[in-house]
Amino acid sequence: MGSELLTLDGLVHVFSYLEAPDLLRAARVNQAWNEAASTTSLWRRMCLDRWTFCNISNLTPGMQTWKQYYLHRSKLEHEMASGRPSADYICRSMRGHKGKIVGMAYLSDNEHVFGAGKLRSVVCTASTDGTIRAWQVQEGTQIWSSPSQEVPFVKVITVPQYKLAISADARGTIKVWHGETGEELAAFSTSSSSSSLVTYSVNNKPFLTVATAGGVIYTLEVPNLNQVSCITAFQNSSIDLLLCSPDKQWLVAGSTENANTSPKVFYTDCLINPADEPPVSSSLPVNNCAVVCWLPKAPARIAVMHQDRISVQRNITVFDLAVKKSKYKMEVIAQQVASFTLPGSTWTTAVLMEGHGTETVLLGCGSNLTLYSIFGTQLEAFQHHNNTITSIWVDSFRVVTSSLDLSLRVYTWKKANKISSLTSRYYLLGGTHRWSRGFTDVACDNISIVGVVAESDETSILRAYSFNL
Fold first, then answer.
1. In the chain, is it the N or the C terminus that has fewer CB atoms within a 10 Å radius of its CB?
2. More confident position, 337 or 11
3. pLDDT tens digits, residue range 438-450?
4. Backbone angles phi, psi at 314, to 5 degrees
């Protein structure tokens, strides 16, 4: 049967077996093939197969088709996977802080409006020089700086959907800053040095939870910082671990300083809607916790690295969290999913841990990056750095590691037989050790990568790599 005798539905069925490059070639044959090859269902399937979640609204009005989304996003990922200087990206240095940068986060949304021409990424930094600053990544320029504060900052986080930055200083004062102007919007004092900050939204209402060195957890409204609740999570233990689950229903708090302290799980609804009785919570059955992370594709699956009480071996235990409701009470259920012991004795130094998907954890220890399944299978191991890995950025497309060897290493995800693995791509270099001591942090969005470089004079600068579209 000739192709001209196939109906439109018949052509679409045949084309459903093609990959994107073949589909684009088929579209050039004639008008009928072009119409079939542009069918929404074909491109929608390819988008969701490749990325799982796609925000098609992030296209210029008039271009909101699954085909255009696929072409723009795949082109961007090709350039970010290639990493050719000048051809694929432009590197800029951003200077201005007179102290160390102690926190960095993107103020702009992670997903940009593809096809809009000029794209704009904005990052926010906090420094020991007492200033918060915002930077335009593509231009390499400062947008605004806060007035210098008397007390140095120790942390900054952002709430991109509300264009807000939230800082904490060494005395525990929390401040909210307008992300576009740098105006101070609100302040709250915890009267104790603040160890951790986390934001989350419930029913489109943003909240901030602050954990202190005194073991106290404050929950505040954003942006006015009105206090919603205050509880003592630990007696005589500083809280330096604080995470909110992907489904926003759970808050996990813990201490790495006290070996006898178990991480506690709180039901966030009880923190933002306090009652007379204590909030619903439970302790995870592990001690001597070193680091925790969520598995981002599961609603509430957490991995905990902890040390055996008898030996020096490190273990990773994974729990699924759920709430059991009865007529008179609610109860936290922490169901153990998996547990395994890390091999060897090389895990005695500081370890970084991040989650991917539902069953993969990444560990950075010394100069090594290792992938494990939550059931203990070592999937891959990399040693591309010559010095300590200082941070790991993980998203659905790639992994970026920063190191004191003054380089960033970029990897991209691939999946075969439902098993995730990494492909090593390229280095991004940060300059010379004559002036710099190494990268201390890294963050990314869909069109840029930004690293914090510690300079030899005890200050920090930003190195921004913006990718061409």
1. N
2. 337
3. 999 999 998 899 9
4. -100, 140
Burial class of 158 by CB neighbour count within 10 A (0 to 12, 13 to 18, 19+)? buried
Taking CA atoms, 364 is separated from 388, 414, 437, 460, in Å, by: 9, 19, 19, 23
467, 79 Cβ separation under 8 angstroms: yes
SS3 402: strand
Q: 146 falls in which pLDDT band (50, 70, 90)?
A: very high
Nearest to 97 by CA among 164, 142, 49, 159: 142
Among candidate residues 319, 209, 322, the one with its CA nearest the CA of residue 272: 209
User: Distance between terminal CA atoms of the chain?
Assistant: 43
Rounded (to 5) percent helix, strand, coil in the chain: 15, 45, 40
Neighbours of 388 (CB within 10 A): 18
* Res. 306: pLDDT tops 50: yes
CA distances from 221 to 225, 226, 230, 270, 284 (A): 5, 5, 12, 14, 28
Asked whether 457 and 99 are in contact (CB, 8 A), the reply is no
252, 265 contact by CB (below 8 A): yes
27-76 tens-digit pLDDT: 888 888 888 888 888 888 888 777 656 666 655 555 568 888 888 777 77
Q: What is the pLDDT of residue 55?
A: 64
Q: Which residues pair with 145 in a beta bridge?
A: 133
The CA-CA-CA angle for residues 218, 220, 226, to 5°, reads: 120
Give the torsion through C-alpha atoms of 401, 47, 421, 360, to 10 deg.
80
The per-residue pLDDT for 1 is 43
Q: Which two tokens stand for residue 253?
A: 């708090």
Enter the tokens of residue 457: 């004079």
CA dihedral 6, 8, 14, 17 (to 10 degrees): 170
Beta-carbon-side half-sphere exposure of residue 36 (alpha carbons within 13 Å): 25
Give the single-character DSSP code of 260: T
